[in-house]
Structures are given as structure tokens and as C-alpha cells.
Amino acid sequence: MTAQDNTIVQLDRAVKTYAMGLQKVHALNDVSLDIKSGSFWAVMGSSGSGKSTLLNIVGCLDRLSSGAYLVEGQNVAGLDDNALSDRRLRQIGFIFQSFNLIPQLTVQRNIELPLYYLGWDAERSRERGRELARKVGLEDRLNHRPSELSGGQMQRVAIARALANDPRLLLADEPTGNLDSATGEQIMRLLRDLHGEGKTIVMVTHESHVAAYAQNRLHMKDGRIDRIESS
Fold first, then answer.
1. What DSSP character marks residue 174?
2. CATH T-level topology, domain 39-56+80-230
3. Residue 161: alpha-carbon gap to chain centroid
4. Tell me, what's the pLDDT at 22?
5. How much is the pLDDT for 157?
6. β-sheet with 216-221: strand ranges across
7. Among candidates 132, 131, 136, 156, which has minimal Cα distance to 146?
8. C-alpha distances in angstroms, 106 versus 117, 152, 153?
9. In degrees to the nearest 10, what's the CA dihedral of 53, 163, 144, 142?
10. Cβ-defined contacts of 72-77 (< 8 Å, 24+)
């Protein structure tokens, strides 16, 4: 990959193998993929197809058994756990199906949490938290706790938190899975807007109407890329 290339994620013959008793299961099997900066991908497939494993590898939450994974031209395979954690903290935002908010913290504090680990001072963090709450339409909920919010509001908090570090790469794992259809559409429109602002998004989903928001739809089967559709 050259310096002029705008590829942000590159997998080259990626293999991830798990031991299941005496058997070896290839969760990823010889997967090669380039993801351009500013693109929007939906990863689809049945249970066990490899889509969640692919997302975990891209998010530096897991390591390959063989092959290469490059982020902005750097092969992360040789990084130790601390370096991988730092890369996740500084460059990647995560949105989960189950929101993963801390129930004891307010909306403001949940959004600010990554900034605490980045060493931001309190006032700068508060202003960033308020800015992101406004962005997702929750400026009037800053002092509420997750138990006082609807599912859609909790996912908006999770999106704001994922944006706190201004990540180059935004990863979403079934972001509408715990939401009703109308609320899910609102969340997808928000993700579409973030993509329009230049964010690179990789999203796992099993719903075709959700995947339709993405430019590229990658279908996984038996740990391999079955096909890629673009629009």
C-alpha cells in the first residue's frame, strides 16, 4: 500500500483458527479485503459465517492466526497488547448492539469516558461531551442515567461515546438489533449522516434493509468472502 492510497483497512490472506476440542475451526479462512477511507460497509452472513470474527479483527480486539492486517499501512500483527489497546482508544470507535453503557454514570460521563483514558482535562472533556450530545440530539439528557433513557436514546449515547476520540474508523455490531423498526431507522439515518461527514463505517447486520444504507455489502460464508455487492 502506497502513501497515496486511501486504504484504511487491508486484510491479506487473513486466517483465524479456533480449537474446538480436537478440531480446528477456521472462523476466517484466507480473507483478503481493502476498505477505503470514507466508505460504508455492511458485513452480512448467517451465524458462524465469520462476520463477528472479521469485525473483532478489524477492531484490534483479536489477533490473526496467520496473514496480515494493516491499518493505515501499518501491520498490527506484531503489536503487543498495550499497543493494540492504544490503537483502539485513539483510532477506532465501537457501537454495540447492547449499548454497553455504564449504568452508574450520567449521559455526560458515559460520553466522556474514552477521553478520561486519553488524559483530557475535565473542562475540555465536558465541552466535548456536550458537543457530541448535541450532535446526537441528547443535549437535554446530559444528567440522566441509562435507566432513564429509551433504547434509541441509549444507542445515541453509545454513538456519541464512539465519536469522542474522533476516530478514523467506526465499527458497529448489529447497531439496530435491540431497537424497534422506527427507532432503528433513526439510528441508521444518524450513521448515514456520519458517513456523509467522512467517517469510515464497518457494520455487522443480518437485516437487508439496514445493510441497504451501506455502499458495500460483504457477504460471509464459512469464514470466507462469498460475494461483495456495491451501490
1. S
2. Rossmann fold (3.40.50)
3. 12
4. 82
5. 97
6. 92-96, 169-173, 200-204, 40-44, 216-221, 224-230
7. 156
8. 17, 16, 13
9. 180
10. 72/8, 72/168, 73/1, 73/3, 73/5, 73/7
Take residue 227 and report the three cell numbers written for it: 460475494
DSSP summary character for residue 139: G
Asked if 101 and 177 touch (Cβ cutoff 8 Å), the reply is no
Determine how β-strand 200-204 pairs with β-strand 23-36. Answer: unpaired
Closest by CA to 136, choosing from 198, 199, 191, is 191
The pLDDT value recorded for residue 231 is 87
Read out DSSP for 100-136?
A: ---TTS-HHHHHHHHHHHTT--HHHHHHHHHHHHHHT
Cell 476498505 belongs to residue: 35
* Residues in the chain with pLDDT values less than 50: 1-4
pLDDT at 3: 40
Q: How far, CA to CA in Å, does 14 sit from each of 29, 39, 213?
A: 7, 21, 27
Please, which residues have CB within 8 angstroms of residue 197's CB and are 6 or more apart in sequence? Answer: none
Q: Can you give the pLDDT at residue 1?
A: 39
> What pLDDT is stored for residue 20 in this prediction?
83
> What are the structural domain ranges in the chain?
39-56+80-230
With 0-12 CB in 10 A as exposed, 13-18 as middle and 19+ as buried, what is 85?
middle
The C-alpha R_g of the chain, in whole angstroms, comes to 18
d(CA 13, CA 77) in angstroms, rounded, equals 13
Name the pTM for this structure.
Answer: 0.93
